[in-house]
């Protein structure tokens, strides 16, 4: 445990170090000046507070030292005044440096006065028990402040760690969403390519069917006829007339002619046309799916807390004075308000699948076909008409 002499002599050490560091900064080091000034303000306020709470009340009890309290309080008041003026000055201005020097000079003069006048009077007037009690209280006060600082720093680190984890989580979610979106785009691209390839194959198939049909028609149109049916000839390849047979063929009954046969037997083929139905693929429509981005309003409720400082007067429980009384005392309490922080994440709401489905339907194709029929007449003048349907052999 330090003595009262050591306490008074070593207390200003940290403040003097902060003054020296602050005086070495330039006008461009605004952030550094703000940080050092905050530390200096805390240190000077702590020194003054501990003196006013634990040292000055004891000095007032002794006749030899009570007159030293008022000048010491005035020094603390002057230090607080200069500190407040320094905080109002812009940290990057030319006025900041001279104001720091003025505050440093006033503080060091106060320290010299305490060492020159206050310390000898305290050592003379106070007993060892009183001096040691003051030292213990001041050391306890410093320890409490240091513990509060450590707790606050730990809380800040925990909050920063939590914010960092939330940011990393948000980035991971955004990355995952981007990967899903990229995969969706790739699947859509592959689907579009497949659709394009299928459409090209269908067009090629239609072209081939059309070309084959045209070639068939050309062959039928240019081939020599052997029956009365072009389609029959195309299907069965009857391109010539059998030798030794005489046939009368015509496209209609009015153009027919008679031929006398000298053979023992004549075979008259009765032909008919057949429907040749093919298929080709036509484009019956195009379905286009386009994804676009819209903005819609969104809202979410969040509970926020505000802390306000309430000052009230009340009747004391007892009128007995406890602790320090009839002295100047300044208490500061910070008011806080929570504000919402908004971030945005991306997730897949739903998927749109574009595919083709094949259905089957049956259509009836109607057209007219031609076929051969026979009309039989005898030479006796009796005639009879006989209509027969197409048959390959009938007796």
TrEMBL record:
TM regions (residue ranges):
none
Q: Which Gene3D superfamilies has this protein been placed in? A: nmb1532 protein domain like (1.20.120.520)
- Matching InterPro entries: DUF2382 (IPR019060), Hemerythrin-like (IPR012312)
Domain DUF2382, residue spans? 268-376
Stretches for region Disordered: 143-167
Q: Note the superkingdom of the native organism.
A: Bacteria
Start and end of every Hemerythrin-like domain? Answer: 15-121
Q: Which PANTHER family match?
A: HHE DOMAIN PROTEIN (AFU_ORTHOLOGUE AFUA_4G00730)
Protein name as it appears in the record = DUF2382 domain-containing protein
Organism of origin = Methylobacterium durans
């Amino acid at each position: 445990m330090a003595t009262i002499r050591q306490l008074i002599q070593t207390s200003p050490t940290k403040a003097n170090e902060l003054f020296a560091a602050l005086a070495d900064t330039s006008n461009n080091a605004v952030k550094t000046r703000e940080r050092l000034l905050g530390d200096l303000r805390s240190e000077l306020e702590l020194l003054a507070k501990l003196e006013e709470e634990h040292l000055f009340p004891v000095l007032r009890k002794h006749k030899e030292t009570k007159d030293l309290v008022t000048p010491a309080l005035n020094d603390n008041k002057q230090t607080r005044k200069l500190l407040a003026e320094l905080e109002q000055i812009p940290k990057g201005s030319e006025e900041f440096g001279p104001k720091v020097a003025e505050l440093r000079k006033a503080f060091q003069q106060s320290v010299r006065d305490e060492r020159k006048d206050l310390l000898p009077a305290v050592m003379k007037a106070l007993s060892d028990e009183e001096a040691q009690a003051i030292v213990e209280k001041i050391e306890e006060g410093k320890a409490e402040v240091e513990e509060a600082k450590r707790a606050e720093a730990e809380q800040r680190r925990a909050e920063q760690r939590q914010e960092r984890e939330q940011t990393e989580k948000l980035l991971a979610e955004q990355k995952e969403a981007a990967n899903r979106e990229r995969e969706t785009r790739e699947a859509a691209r592959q689907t579009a390519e497949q659709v394009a390839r299928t459409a090209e194959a269908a067009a090629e198939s239609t072209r081939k069917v059309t070309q084959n049909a045209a070639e068939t028609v050309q062959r039928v149109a240019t081939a020599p006829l052997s029956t009365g049916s072009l389609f029959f000839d195309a299907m069965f390849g009857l391109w010539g007339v059998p030798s030794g047979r005489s046939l009368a063929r015509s496209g209609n009954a009015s153009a027919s002619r008679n031929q006398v046969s000298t053979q023992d037997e004549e075979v008259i083929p009765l032909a008919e046309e057949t429907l040749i139905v093919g298929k080709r693929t036509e484009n019956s429509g195009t379905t286009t799916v386009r994804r676009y981005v819209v903005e819609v309003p969104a809202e979410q409720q969040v509970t926020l807390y505000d802390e306000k400082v309430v000052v009230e007067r009340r009747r004391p429980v007892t009128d007995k004075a406890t602790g320090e009384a009839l002295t100047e005392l300044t208490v500061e309490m910070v008011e806080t308000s929570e504000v919402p922080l908004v971030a945005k994440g991306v997730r897949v709401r739903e998927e749109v699948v574009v595919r083709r489905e094949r259905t089957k339907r049956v259509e009836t194709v109607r057209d007219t076909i031609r076929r051969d029929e026979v009309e039989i007449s005898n030479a006796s003048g009796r005639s009879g008409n006989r209509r027969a349907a197409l048959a390959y052999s009938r007796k």
